[in-house]
Write a structure and sequence with these properties.
The chain has eleven helices and eight strands. It has about 450 residues and is an alpha+beta fold. Belongs to the outer membrane factor (OMF) (TC 1.B.17) family.
C-alpha cells in the first residue's frame, strides 16, 4: 500500500533533525498525552525554540550596541600621572672626548593631571554610527520574526503529519474491522462450497497486510511526535494529541494580487533587505565623512614638579590648566579616502541589486505558494468525488461477489480503492492546510 509515500509528496520537507528514540516508547506512553491546538503549539515553539532564542540574544546584543554608539557622544576623560628619575647632565664644552662639566639638575620629576575632550563635529560620524547600529537592531528584529514564522511552519508540518497518521490509523482500524466481518462471510461461503479456498487465503493475506500497516503508522506518528517535541521544548517521551481538526472551509482563497501586496508590505526577507540597503547607505556616508574637519572642546589641568616649562625655572610644584577649542583637518584624507569611498559606493550598488533580486524571489515564492494552494484545494474537491465513486463501486462489487457474479480479486480491489481514496482525501486536506501556512509564511502573515 502506498498511501504514505503519496502523502509525503504533498508535504513540505521537514528541515529539522530528529534524535534517535524508540518509537514504541512514544506510542505506548499514553498516560502522558497532552492535547494541543495548533495555536498552543505555536506559542510553545515561539518560547522554547532554540533558533528563536538565539535570534532574541542577537536583538539584545544589537540594543547594547546602540547604547555603546550613543556613549560616543560623552566626553573623553583621561587621568594621567608620571614619575621619573632624571640622570646627571654632562656638558661637553671642549668636545665629546674631553672631560665634561656637570650641569646641576633636579633628579626627581613627576606630573599628575587630567584632561577631557568633547567632540562637537567630526563629519556627523557619531550620529551615522548610531543610525547604523539601529539598522542592525532592526535587521535582528526582522530576522527573529522570520525565524518565528519558519518555526511555526515546521511545527505545523509536524502537527499535521501527526494528524495525518492518526486519521490514517482510524481509517485503517475501521477498514480492518470491516475486512474481518467480510472474511467471516467469505469463510461461510467457502464452507458451503460456494467459493474456493483461495478466496479465503486472499482475504486473509489482505487483512494481514492491513494490520502490518498499523505498525508503520505508529512509527510515523512517533517520529513526528518527537520532532514536534524537540521544536516546542517538550520531553521526548511526551505524547502530544493534535486536537484541532483541519478546517479548510474557513480559509478562503484570495486573489493573487492581494497576497502579492501583503508580501510587498510584510515579507520578512524584503524588510531585511531594505534595512541592509539602508545600512550600506550609512556606511557610504560614514566613509565620506572621513574628509570632514574635526572640532571639539578640550580642557586639561596638571600638577608638575619641578617647574621647568617657563622661565625662570623653579624647584617647586606648580599647576597649569588649559581649555579651549581644538580643530583639525587632514588634506591627505582626500586621496587616502578616495578608494574607500569607491568601495562603499560599489557595495551599495550591489546591495540595491540584491534587494531587487530578493523582491523577485519573494514574488516568485508567493506565486508558487498561491498556485500550489489553489491546486491543493482543487485536489480536495477531486478526492471527495473519488471517495463517493469508490464507495458506490465497492457496494456494487460487494453485491455482485456475494451473488457469485464477480471474482474475489474484484472485491479486494474495490476495498483497496475505497481505502486509498479515503487516505487521499485525508492527505489532500492536510496538504492543503500546510500549503496555506506556507502561503502565510512567504507573505509575512504566519
Amino acid at each position: 500500500m502506498n498511501f504514505n509515500s503519496k502523502y509525503h509528496l504533498t508535504l513540505l520537507p521537514a528541515l529539522l533533525l530528529v534524535l534517535p528514540l524508540s518509537a514504541q516508547q512514544l506510542v505506548t506512553d499514553t498516560s502522558k498525552t497532552l492535547p494541543l491546538t495548533i495555536a498552543q503549539v505555536w506559542q510553545k515553539a515561539e518560547v522554547n525554540s532554540k533558533a528563536v532564542r538565539i535570534k532574541q540574544l542577537r536583538i539584545t546584543s544589537s540594543q547594547e550596541a546602540i547604547k555603546d554608539a550613543k556613549a560616543e557622544r560623552l566626553p573623553e576623560i583621561n587621568i594621567n600621572g608620571e614619575y621619573a628619575r632624571v640622570s646627571n647632565m654632562p656638558v661637553y664644552e671642549n668636545g665629546l672626548f674631553s672631560s665634561p662639566s656637570q650641569f646641576p639638575v633636579l633628579h626627581t620629576t613627576y606630573t599628575v593631571g587630567a584632561e577631557a575632550y568633547l567632540n562637537i563635529y567630526n563629519g556627523n560620524k557619531v550620529n551615522l554610527e548610531i543610525d547604523a547600529r539601529k539598522n542592525e537592531s532592526n535587521i535582528a528584529g526582522e530576522q527573529k520574526k522570520l525565524t518565528i514564522s519558519e518555526t511555526k511552519l515546521h511545527a505545523a508540518a509536524y502537527y499535521l503529519d501527526m494528524q495525518r497518521s492518526l486519521i490514517f490509523k482510524d481509517l485503517l482500524l475501521k477498514d480492518i474491522a470491516a475486512q474481518e466481518k467480510q472474511l467471516l462471510q467469505i469463510k461461510t461461503l467457502q464452507k458451503n462450497g460456494v467459493v474456493l479456498k483461495s478466496d479465503v487465503l486472499r482475504a486473509e493475506l489482505k487483512l494481514s497486510k492491513q494490520k502490518l500497516s498499523l505498525t508503520q503508522l505508529d512509527n510515523d506518528l512517533a517520529i513526528a511526535n518527537q520532532k514536534l517535541n524537540i521544536l516546542i521544548g517538550l520531553p521526548d517521551e511526551q505524547r502530544v494529541d493534535p486536537v484541532e481538526a483541519v478546517q479548510l472551509d474557513s480559509v478562503l482563497l484570495k486573489p493573487y494580487s492581494t497576497y502579492l501586496a501583503d508580501a510587498a508590505n510584510g515579507a520578512y526577507q524584503v524588510k531585511i533587505s531594505e534595512q541592509e540597503t539602508a545600512l550600506r547607505e550609512l556606511k557610504l556616508k560614514s566613509v565620506k565623512a572621513n574628509v570632514m574637519p574635526k572640532v571639539g572642546l578640550f580642557a586639561a589641568y596638571n600638577y608638575s614638579y619641578p617647574q621647568i616649562q617657563f622661565y625662570p625655572y623653579s624647584a617647586s610644584i606648580y599647576g597649569l590648566g588649559l581649555a579651549g577649542v581644538k580643530a583639525s583637518f587632514s588634506p591627505s584624507s582626500f586621496y587616502h579616502n578616495y578608494h574607500k569611498a569607491k568601495v562603499a559606493r560599489l557595495e551599495l550598488e550591489s546591495q540595491e541589486i540584491e534587494h531587487a533580486q530578493t523582491e523577485d524571489v519573494v514574488r516568485q515564492q508567493v506565486n508558487e505558494a498561491w498556485l500550489r494552494y489553489k491546486e491543493a484545494l482543487n485536489r480536495v474537491d477531486v478526492t471527495q468525488t473519488n471517495v463517493k465513486q469508490a464507495t458506490e463501486n465497492r457496494r456494487i462489487v460487494s453485491n455482485t461477489y456475494f451473488n457469485q457474479l464477480s471474482l474475489i480479486t474484484d472485491l479486494l480491489d474495490a476495498d483497496t480503492q475505497l481505502l486509498q481514496t479515503r487516505f487521499d482525501l485525508a492527505a489532500a486536506k492536510i496538504a492543503a492546510q500546510l500549503q496555506y501556512y506556507q502561503l502565510q509564511n512567504v507573505t509575512g502573515k504566519l
